[in-house]
Amino acid sequence: MKQVLLSIALVFCSASYLLASPSYSPNKYQQNDWFGEFGGTTSMYVNPAGMVENDQLEVTGGFFSTISGAAMQEYGSIVYPFGYDHAIGFTFFENGAEVDPNAGDRGSYTENAYMIGYAYRLLHSLAIGVNLSVLYVNHFGYNNQITLGSDFGISWNPISSSKLGHVQIGVALQNWAQPVIAGVGDEPNSGYGFVAPAFGGADVDGYAIPSNLNISLFYRGFNRSLEIKGEVSMIDVFHNELEGGEGNMIEFGVSATYFLTSHLGVKGRLTKEGYPVVGATINVKDVNFFRYLALDLEMSHDDLIEKKNRGFLWNVRASARFGDTREEKIGEARYRRLKIEPENDYRAAMRLYLNRDFIAASYAFGKVQTKYPTFHLVDQAAFYKGKSFENMRMHLAAQRVYNESIRKYPHSDQVPKYHFQLMNIDYKEGRYGEAMVKYQYIVQNFPKSDVKPDADYIAGQIKFEQGQNKDAIELLNSILPGNANYFYARYTMGIAYSRLEQWNEAKGSFSDIISQQPSNQSEKDLQDAAKVKLGHIFFAEPEGLAEAAQLYGQVSNVNSPFYEEAALALAWSFLKVRNTQQARPFTAWIIRNRPNSYLVSEAYLVEGYCDYMEGNLRRADANLKKAEQLSKNPAISKDQKDSARTAYDGMKDRFDTIQIRALDLARQLPTPRVEQKRAALRPDFERANREIENFAEFQQRVIQSDRFEASRIRVQQDAGLTAAVVSSKIASQPGGAGGGASDLGDLDDLDDLEDLE
């Protein structure tokens, strides 16, 4: 190590004698090349464009001193890169000396410089930079001032590869805005305050620090083991003759660093003032707090060339890098933009969807589509946006979403789902022909997709509602346990078999439902329905009454939508064996708790039969007439249906307009203006949505009313005929005493208990 340092010192000493120009120039500007050279990432005062090469937050500090410490300069710098193209930096120099400690301001000399710089990468290999320097000067109290200057630089990186190395070329104009040191008189503070900079060598009252043109070269190669730096400077390019001296003087400096290992290097340099410097650098990487930490030591003696009476000089500089690199930050930002942020937004949209806030969910899924078009779940976001509209019965908006998604994501695995949802909307809207056309498309193009069983189910339901029971059974039979539609498919099959009077097959379908483990409340309710329907089949069999009653009794939850039907069926079962005491609690519960039920008229009919069997003719007459009165008219009349349909058709155009507005807003990012539009639309939407929901609920009541129409007519006829018999008995037996069940025969008509769908 010692031999290497001595060799480098000898080489640079020899070169300095041959090449240096030690003659004195009155206004020669001593450029500071101790603390940094071109290629150093914090040396904005050499060329501010060089900061773009900085890859991490970097902090540098150091000092330059004579052996005596009488002359010293401190230095600090920090550079922060952001994005791929930008870097900002701050540098300060502290120069000063205390000549007479007892003289206060009159005994000290200060020149401090503070620099703020910015660099921008125009192209991958070309960058520009500029800095603003603030110079504070206090010359023994006679000149106490602040002045400004500025530098401009360009950096070009034509080569950067592992094979050829890294080449960087820079051009900088130092002090294109020249700091001005004001002229002073004999009185203290005669030069005080702010002094404006000069431009282009203009005449000033004082001394304008020269503008210099620097041309720099930096090379790193040989597997990063060698660094060479060179600089040629033209001093005082805007020379003012009034300041004396000569302008456009040429200076140069050169340095080299050879790394013995990746952590240790030796260096030598010939300064622009013409004397040699030797030094060493040592670094460590990836320690606990620092990503990189380097310490540089340089030494020289400026009396080697000419006597300057400063003697031995030395310089210590420490550099540390912290935090993520540019690439890591950009990678993290891209990861967040392409992965984390869209996933967070997608999950937020899904939470809204699961909480059934469908209008907000449609906007949130639309944001995912619009803001993150390359997100890997964007096709699913489109699907759930359509589902959100569909769940709000905004079928027009949902159809447009699905059709747009088919065009935008033709290779997505969501495409079969888009087609199925379009088929499902046609089914909900009663467009059975169009729905079956879409079904055939699914069968032909997506026969093995997940939606095929769902499409089979909808097609089976269409065939069932069209009365094509055999076709419905064939389609629904392919839906296997584990499918979300299995319970519903088997239930429809059971009803279809019942229509075809294939009782064993009907029993099998309903039994399949009962034997499965339900996964949600809807499936539990459907199991209750299957128990009731299976009980009706057994009820009609000569020896099936006990099993029927057992099935009815299993529907024990009074909140079940099928409890009323099971309770009424149990009442009929007990009535069939003439056990009126066991029958009455069930009919009484219906009359007391469900006065608006479609079954309440039949409950009064059973009450009337019980009264007659018990010999209470007057009460039987009252209950039978009540049953006849309640069953006289349909629960929902044709006029009511027509009126509701007319009102719905009248508001449908307005609702379609609201759908299109909501869809348009779902395609836009949630800017404040868009949010205002969404807030303004919400009252119109909620009002229209309530009307749609009310009409949908009314339609469900219509379906139930139509379904119980045959039962209503039967109850009306049975109640009327039985009431006539009872009235005749009352007339023939004054006081209404006596009577019995013999005139009603064996109640064989109970064997024909209606199979309510």
Describe the structure in your own words:
- With 757 residues, this protein is an alpha+beta fold.
- Helix content is 45%, strand content 24%.
- The chain has 20 helices and 18 strands.
- It has a 14-stranded antiparallel β-barrel. Strands 8-11 form a two-stranded antiparallel ribbon.
- β4 and β5 form a beta hairpin.
- α18 packs antiparallel against α19.
- The chain starts with a helix and ends in a 25-residue tail after the last helix.
- Residues 1-31 and 736-757 have low confidence and may be disordered.
Q: Which features would summarize this protein structure in a list?
A:
18 strands, disordered C terminus, 20 helices, 45% helix, alpha+beta, two-stranded antiparallel sheet
Q: How would you write the strand order of the largest sheet?
A: 1-2-3-4-5-6-7-12-13-14-15-16-17-18
Computed CA radius of gyration, to the nearest angstrom: 48 Å
Low-confidence segments, ≥5 residues, pLDDT <50? 1-31, 736-757
Most strands sheet = 14 strands, antiparallel, barrel
Count the beta strands. Answer: 18
The amount of helix comes to 40-55%
Structural class: alpha+beta
- What is the CA-CA span between the terminal residues? 100 Å
Shape: rod-shaped
* Overall average residue pLDDT: 85
Percentage of β-strand residues: 15-25%
Write the layout of secondary structure elements.
Blueprint: H1 2-19, E1 57-66, E2 72-82, E3 86-98, E4 108-121, E5 126-139, E6 143-161, E7 165-178, E8 180-182, E9 191-195, E10 198-199, E11 206-208, E12 212-221, E13 226-235, E14 249-261, E15 264-270, E16 276-285, E17 292-301, E18 312-322, H2 326-354, H3 358-371, H4 378-391, H5 395-408, H6 415-428, H7 432-445, H8 452-465, H9 469-476, H10 486-499, H11 503-515, H12 521-539, H13 545-553, H14 563-576, H15 580-593, H16 600-613, H17 617-630, H18 638-666, H19 672-707, H20 709-732
Parallel strand pairs: 6-9
Antiparallel strand pairs: 1-2, 1-18, 2-3, 3-4, 4-5, 5-6, 6-7, 7-10, 7-12, 8-11, 12-13, 13-14, 14-15, 15-16, 16-17, 17-18
Helix pairs in contact: 2-3, 3-4, 3-18, 4-5, 5-6, 5-18, 6-7, 6-8, 7-8, 8-9, 9-10, 10-11, 10-12, 11-12, 12-13, 12-14, 13-14, 14-15, 14-16, 15-16, 16-17, 16-20, 17-20, 18-19
